[in-house]
Write a structure and sequence with these properties.
The protein is α/β, with parallel strands linked by helices and 293 residues long. It has 13 helices and 5 strands. A 5-stranded mixed beta sheet has the order 1-2-3-5-4, with helices on both faces. It starts with a helix and ends with a helix.
Length: 293
């Protein structure tokens, strides 16, 4: 049983978490380090209560919460998560200040319930407030983890799984203090996947030569509400990659540092690239049009 002092502190953190979520939902991305820390701590406390009847595996970098009957999968997922964490340390010099909580859900229904998703919406992974949420890989692989399938299971989870993507969100959240628009966060996460394992999300719905290209204001203002989500993701990734190919990693770091200081995204972009985001986007779109003609 929590002491009164701990209960008061926990309730304070939850109230503060609700306030911060409200401000983020209404377009205010930058919050102080102390407020962001409280948000993450409040979320972790709440998830600890949700997962109180589950098992967990711990290392210096990861705390994996999982259904007790999924021990075999949890051990494999922990090994992969440790490898991803090592890769981020090598690629970006990034080491989280404390172990990253990872929450494993056994099926789509339970994960949909956690995020209040409609029945037709799902994801294999989610990053939220310092934690990573994973769907049981069996549900999207169509393959159970057995002694016989172990090598193929691990290969697919490494190459197709969501860990690099979600760890990229974790890194970017820390690197910018959350001061990034949705399109950029998803663009960066896809770029990390591409660099780490060569994965690109390519489906008929996001072929640039067959579907209209969204405008930059569409991506900036309505990213999560666009009808062709695959196209929105693909465009964001290709735009980010175009800028990286043109200007390199030093420019990306410069942009992230300005964002961490609290500069508005448009201002930070212009300081880094010497032009507005829309001007850069037009240059990318012209390059795309020249290729698809």
């Amino acid at each position: 049983m929590l002491s009164n002092k701990k209960q008061i502190r926990s309730w304070f953190i939850l109230v503060l978490t609700g306030f911060v979520l409200f401000t983020l939902a209404n377009g205010f991305h930058y919050v102080s380090a102390a407020t962001r820390s409280a948000l993450h701590e409040g979320s972790e406390w709440l998830e600890g209560w949700r997962f109180r009847d589950h098992s967990r595996l711990e290392t210096e970098r990861i705390i994996l919460h999982y259904p007790t009957e999924m021990r075999r999968e949890a051990e494999a997922i922990l090994r992969e998560t440790e490898q991803v964490a090592e890769d981020f340390e090598e690629m970006f010099g990034f080491s989280p200040a404390k172990p990253v909580p990872v929450y494993l859900y056994p099926d789509r229904t339970s994960m949909q319930r956690r995020f209040s998703w409609p029945p037709d919406q799902s994801a294999t992974g989610v990053y939220y407030a310092g934690g990573i949420y994973l769907l049981n890989p069996e549900k999207w692989m169509g393959m159970a983890l057995t002694d016989r399938s172990r090598n193929e299971w691990q290969r697919r989870f490494h190459e197709e799984g969501p860990l690099y993507h979600e760890f990229a969100h974790l890194y970017l959240d820390a690197a910018t203090r959350g001061n990034v628009p949705r399109w950029y966060s998803e663009a960066f996460a896809q770029w990390v996947e591409y660099r780490a394992v060569g994965y690109e999300w390519r489906v008929p719905e996001n072929r640039l030569d067959q579907h209209p290209i969204y405008s930059y204001p569409d991506l900036r203002d309505r990213f999560d509400h666009l009808s062709n989500k695959a196209m929105a993701y693909r465009q964001s990734f290709l735009f980010f990659k175009y800028q990286w190919d043109e200007e390199g990693w030093d420019a990306v770091q410069s942009l992230q540092q300005d964002l961490k200081r609290g500069l508005p995204f448009e201002v930070a972009w212009k300081r880094t690239y010497g032009e507005s985001v829309e001007a850069s986007f037009r240059s990318w779109q012209q390059a795309v049009n020249a290729r698809v003609r």
